[in-house]
Amino acid sequence: MRLKVEFTTEPFELDGFPDHAKAARRAVDEAGLTVDVGPFGTSAEGEAEAALAAVARLLRDGLAEGATRISIQVSTLDPSEDEA
């Protein structure tokens, strides 16, 4: 099964990329997920085991780096979406 993980970390900083956001991004990058950064959050897609491990790491590392809130949504991907 493939999953899509969408997340944001807070507090937002308009003047830069905060350490908690860097830690969350690093978690999904190093898990080997396909990452898309948008203006209001980041999404990452990959196999369920890797995606779930990345979620645990991004929570742990993001909070350790100063996040006061982390919002996460996890969705299953329709296998036909992989072919698009």
Please, could you describe this protein's structure?
With 84 residues, the chain is an alpha+beta fold. 35% of the residues lie in helices and 35% in strands. Strand 2 (34-38) and strand 3 (41-47) form a beta hairpin. Helix 1 packs antiparallel against helix 2 (48-64).
Write a brief structural summary.
The protein is α+β, with helices and mostly antiparallel strands.
Overall geometric form: globular
Strand content: 25-35%
Helical fraction equals: 25-40%
* Unreliable residue stretches: none
Task: Tell me the number of strands.
Answer: 4
Structural class: alpha+beta
Mean pLDDT: 92
Distance between the termini: 16 Å
The secondary-structure element order is EHEEHE
Spatially, the strands of the biggest sheet line up as 2-3-1-4
- Largest sheet, strands/sense/barrel: 4 strands, antiparallel
- The rounded Rg comes to 13 Å
How many alpha or pi helices?
Answer: 2
